[in-house]
Design goal:
This protein has 466 residues and is α+β, with helices and mostly antiparallel strands. Among the domains are: 1-43, no CATH class; 205-460, Lipocalin, CATH 2.40.128.630. It is 25% helix and 32% strand. It has 7 helices and 23 strands. The strands form 6 sheets. Strands 3, 4, 21, 22 and 23 form a 5-stranded antiparallel sheet that branches. Helix 2 packs across helix 3 and helix 3 crosses helix 4 (87-132). 26% of the residues are buried. Mean pLDDT is 78; it is low at 1-22, 46-54, 138-176 and 189-197. Bound molecules: calcium ion. Calcium ion binds at residues 284, 338, 340, 386-388, 435-436.
Length: 466
């Protein structure tokens, strides 16, 4: 019996040597801790049964790895496989692919553009060669040197008009040339019609402003800004040489100093001190026909102070005028109401709520301060540094602080029209608080950062009215 059992066992074990991949023996502990042997024989029917472990699982794992690698290769690499496993990676992959496609499109567009630019360059080169081979147009004589036409900085104001058109790739250049030539001839004719301003001595338009001449520097802080003047139509007891000065720093400005002449002003020796009955505000006061005209502090009241009797000869509100910082010049300093004198008489430069800050120009009766006529301009009062009148026309100065600025605008109340100017103007001391015209001397008086300065003016013939 034992022999039979042994033979069976041997018979069972005999094929193991050449069929080891189809049979296996495991050893392990059972639940009670005893050693347990498990013996499995593979059969054609059972070989594909799923198992929790063992060489077959290992083989499947190996095959799976091979398959995964294959899938990875088929789906475009490890990133693709990983992306497929993770939606976020998939999204990133999609985005990257989209960007790549965009870049390809951009590259193609740039290549097309490059081709177009190369074609244009070739056309320009051909056009240049063609122009070079043509004879030059007849030379035009040089323009007369007209001071009227010379703007700030010495640049030719017509230069932009005389610049030849230069569009590329245009086959109608000969037509352009003739049109340009015609325009140039017309312009030249227009320019040559303007006479040389030196020949003109009448009451005209501002042609140029000289360098400032310094007459005196104020001693104390109260002279940082102020107003100084000579009466263009002086009356006794003071002559036309008398110079008057008011330092306007402070809240109770009442003192006015009188100097016999410019020399005494330069030396700093006043011969007269006038005490004003009511305080003065701003730097807009003027002297005219023996009276000081000024704005009473914190009011729109204008006062005419008679110098001979040293009494108030007239007082009147300037209707609707802003005051005390409502509509000052760009400099500020309560320059709301600026009085001015020229060949035509007495004027006020100010603004009103109705004008919304635009400069209002009013002609005043010098006797009783009544407004004779008003004009509303398009000039923003707080955009200009100061203003003055010459021969019935209003001029504005662009900056009170720039060393090199301009008289940048002229308004003519007679025609109701204004136009931009570029007459060079120097603020030598960089803080110009007052600019007024003296029609007898044809000078501007200004107070520039403690300094009392004057400018000579040159006037030109006014342009013919259209
Ligand atoms: Ca002024």
């Amino acid at each position: 019996m034992f022999l039979l059992l042994s033979m069976c066992l041997l018979a069972f074990l005999a094929p193991r040597g050449d069929a080891q991949d189809r049979a296996a023996l495991w050893r392990g502990n059972d639940r009670s801790g005893r050693c347990q042997y498990t013996f499995t024989v593979a059969s054609p029917a059972e070989a594909s049964c799923p198992r929790a472990g063992g060489p077959e699982v290992e083989a499947v794992k190996t095959r799976l790895s091979v398959l995964e690698a294959l899938v990875s290769r088929l789906t475009g690499g490890d990133a693709g496989a990983a992306a497929a496993a993770d939606p976020r990676l998939q999204e990133a992959l999609n985005r990257a692919v989209g960007e790549r496609n965009l870049l390809r499109g951009e590259k193609e567009r740039l290549e097309r553009e490059l081709g177009s630019l190369q074609r244009r360059l070739e056309e320009m080169l051909r056009e240049t060669e063609r122009l070079r081979s043509r004879p030059c147009p007849p030379q035009t004589p040089a323009l007369p040197d007209s001071g009227l036409m010379r703007p700030a900085g010495g640049l030719n104001p017509m230069s932009h008009l005389m610049t030849r058109p230069n569009r590329q790739g245009d086959s109608s250049s000969s037509l352009r040339d003739s049109v340009w030539q015609q325009g140039f001839q017309e312009l030249k004719a227009e320019v040559t019609e303007v006479p040389a301003p030196e020949e003109y001595t009448g009451c005209g338009v501002l042609a140029s402003v000289s360098e400032p001449v310094t007459h005196r520097k104020a001693d104390g802080i109260s002279g940082k800004y102020g107003v100084w003047m000579q009466d263009p139509e002086a009356v006794a007891p003071y002559g036309s040489d008398m110079v008057w000065r008011v330092d306007t720093v402070g809240s109770d400005v009442r003192q006015m100093f009188g100097y016999e002449d410019m020399e005494q002003l330069s030396k700093g020796f006043p011969t007269k001190v006038v005490l004003l009955p009511e305080p003065l505000e701003g730097t807009g006061a003027v002297l005219y026909r023996g009276s000081l005209y000024y704005q009473r502090r914190r009011s729109r009241t204008l006062i005419r102070f008679d110098l001979a009797s040293e009494t108030v000869a007239a007082r009147r509100d300037l209707p609707h005028a802003g005051f005390h910082g409502q509509f000052p010049y760009s400099w500020g300093g309560y320059t709301d109401i600026d009085l001015a004198v020229d060949e035509r008489g007495l004027w006020a430069v100010y603004s009103t709520s109705k004008a919304k800050g635009a400069v209002v120009l009013s002609r005043l009766d010098p006797h009783d301060l009544r407004v004779i006529k008003s004009w509303e301009t398009n000039i923003r009062k707080n955009s200009v540094a100061n203003a003055f009148l010459v021969c019935g026309r209003l001029y504005t100065v662009a900056s009170y602080a720039a060393a090199n600025t301009t008289v940048n605008y002229m308004y003519d109340p007679e025609s109701g029209r204004g136009r931009a100017l570029a007459v060079p103007f120097k603020n030598k001391y960089r803080y110009n608080s007052m600019i007024d015209y003296n029609p007898t001397q044809k000078k501007l008086f200004a107070w520039d950062n403690f300094h009392m300065v004057s400018y000579d003016l040159r006037l030109g013939r006014p342009p013919a009215e259209a």
